[in-house]
Write a structure and sequence with these properties.
alpha/beta; Translation Initiation Factor IF3; 2 domains; five-stranded mixed β-sheet; four-stranded mixed β-sheet
């Protein structure tokens, strides 16, 4: 791998064409660009059924604040054995409003790449025996009632807005991951028309749901119905949220799958993990992943912190 520094302007890269340049900006997230780079180097079939051109090399190009994203993207392309970093050029590019730092990384296709096999559907986690005891009966009634009611609300919002995904929080589990899973299952339960009060009914809607106990013990559950798993899986969604929250060191629960993915986070000052700080960004990052995959509309940067596809009317203070 060769690195070149160009004082004034990044020169043309060998083998570069207008078609094989992956231009990085802050408009999309890292997984979006990793997928794009993988498609460039290893091929993809378009919606029209036509296979897109495969390039022997691509040039990952980024200016200014997008440079860290480009570094992460190229690192993941190499880590995933999609391609090998062959050349790096750094310098400055003259723009109308002045010079901007510029990086161009040439990545060569790995002909031995094997696409990972995506597990489909997954299954609903079993209810632990600890929640079935007489002692927990009163508490679980509250958890399931809240979850069922939230499910009806989500179903109604989806019907009105045509939503396929929703991000929200619940209070009753208070950061207990097992209880939060049961709450999400209550949201997804089929509605019984004979019930006096409707509950559940939102099983067709993908969800990220979190719950927290005071200033610690934060639990997150991602749910993706099998009908949507061609677009994303619960584990992929949760992995991206973890990446953005800088909590990759926290292990996803081992029984997570493509339908349900779960994580429990506790305060850890040595790893700079503080639940009170993290919780305010769970919904924001969950929606950023959906936007990056084109599953929800893009929003203007000025509105990004305010617009969420889920609960935006509850008090997080």
């Amino acid at each position: 791998m060769a690195e070149e520094k160009v004082e004034n302007k990044v020169e043309k890269v060998e083998e570069k064409t207008d078609d094989n340049i992956l231009r990085i900006s802050r408009q999309h997230n890292v997984p979006f660009y990793v997928r794009a780079g993988t498609n460039f180097l290893q091929g993809v079939t378009g919606k029209d059924g036509v296979e897109k051109k495969i390039f022997d090399t691509i040039v990952v190009s980024a200016l200014g604040a997008a440079i860290p994203t480009a570094a992460t993207v190229t690192g993941l392309l190499e880590k995933n054995k999609v391609g090998t970093i062959e050349k790096i050029q750094t310098g400055y590019t003259d723009l109308d409003y002045g010079k901007r730092p510029h990086i161009m990384v040439t990545v060569r296709r790995d002909p031995n790449y094997v696409a990972p096999v995506r597990k489909s559907q997954g299954k609903e986690p079993e209810t632990p025996e600890s929640l079935k005891t007489e002692k927990m009966e009163k508490k679980m009634k509250k958890v399931l009632k809240e979850g069922g009611k939230r499910g009806v609300e989500i179903e109604g919002a989806a019907d009105m807005g045509g939503l396929k995904y929703f991000c929200t929080k619940v209070d009753e589990p208070k950061g207990d991951l097992d209880m939060l899973v049961e709450s999400v299952k209550a949201m997804n339960a089929k509605s019984d028309p004979s019930d006096e009060e409707r509950k559940g009914g939102s099983g067709r809607i993908g969800k990220t749901v979190f719950s927290m106990a005071d200033d610690n013990d934060l639990a997150i559950v991602c749910y993706v119905p099998k009908e949507e798993q061609k677009s994303l899986t619960a584990t992929e969604w949760l992995d991206d949220i973890k990446l953005k929250l800088s909590i990759n060191a926290v292990e996803t629960r081992e029984d997570s799958n493509s339908m349900y993915a779960m994580i429990k986070i506790v305060n850890d000052s040595e790893k700079n993990i503080f639940c009170l700080k993290i919780r305010d960004y769970v919904i924001q990052h969950a929606n950023a992943y959906l936007r990056g995959k084109g599953l929800v509309p893009e929003v203007d940067d000025d509105d990004e912190d305010e617009m969420v596809f889920g609960d935006d009317d509850f008090d997080l203070a």
